[in-house]
Design brief:
By secondary structure, this protein is of the alpha+beta class. The chain has helices at about 35-55, 85-95, 130-135, 180-190, 195-220, 225, and strands at about 1-10, 10-20, 25-30, 60-65, 75, 100, 100-105, 110, 120, 125-130, 140-145, 155. It has 6 helices and 12 strands. The N and C termini lie far apart (about 40 Å).
Length: about 230
């Protein structure tokens, strides 16, 4: 593997990576955002700039963003919406970055306090653009248990030998016959998401799609495969 640094800033390192012998090339950005919300605006501008620069290539951005895009990604502490969350959400909308499929620890950062005073948040992320999704549909991210740090290591897996076929989402009428269908849709739809009306609808549809797919495999024995 060959790594070449393209640019650096106080909060990010942007690189080009080539896997020798397999003709695989992509861009990767390693981020460690500052604790000061106003200073993170420089990071959002930096990410937006590189989003345009890498728009026609696979791009993976990962690291500690130090902010969450919605209050559903925190446990304990304040549940109030902040301007910092708005800035991050607008950055995700502009750059069209989305979370890579992940497993492992849900709340990746925590103040290690026992009892009800414990505060945990999803501050670490692995974000990808459309070019990455098209070129590496089988890739996924694992957030490993933290060691001596209060953050979790990030492991990215690229399955280059057996790529999966991107299956389009299909809604099956039989889903609506399940007793829990309406309650499931309701639970997803009342999820609080900050942003414009259209952004809220799109994000809720993405959440609902994941839930329905999981339900399909569990309750209907993967009906789409049988059909």
């Amino acid at each position: 593997m060959y790594l070449s640094v393209i640019s650096t800033s106080s909060q990010a390192i942007h690189c080009s990576i080539s896997i020798l012998g397999q003709n695989v090339n992509f861009f990767t950005s390693f981020v460690y955002a500052t604790n000061i919300a106003t200073d993170r605006q420089l990071l959002w501008d930096d990410i937006s700039y590189h989003a345009h620069l890498f728009s026609h290539s696979p791009w993976l951005l990962m690291g500690d963003l130090n902010v969450i895009p919605n209050i559903g990604e925190t446990h304990g502490g304040s549940m109030r919406w902040s301007n910092a969350m708005t800035d991050f959400t607008e950055c995700l909308q502009e750059t069209e970055l989305d979370d890579l499929k992940f497993s492992g620890i849900l709340y990746f950062w925590s103040k290690k306090i026992l009892g009800d005073a414990c505060i945990a948040k999803k501050l670490e992320r692995a974000l990808v653009n459309l070019g990455w999704t098209k070129n590496f549909p089988s890739s996924e991210c694992t957030f490993l248990p933290p060691g001596i740090s209060d953050h979790s290591p990030i492991l990215i897996t690229l399955d280059l030998n057996t790529p999966r076929r991107c299956v389009p989402f299909r809604f099956f009428n039989t889903w609506s016959s399940h007793p829990k269908f309406h309650s499931t849709v309701h639970e997803v739809w009342i999820t609080y998401i900050r942003g414009t009306s259209m952004f809220q609808v799109v994000q809720k549809l993405k959440l609902l799609k994941k839930v329905l797919r999981a339900s399909c495999k569990k309750e209907f024995s993967d009906v789409d495969a049988k059909l």
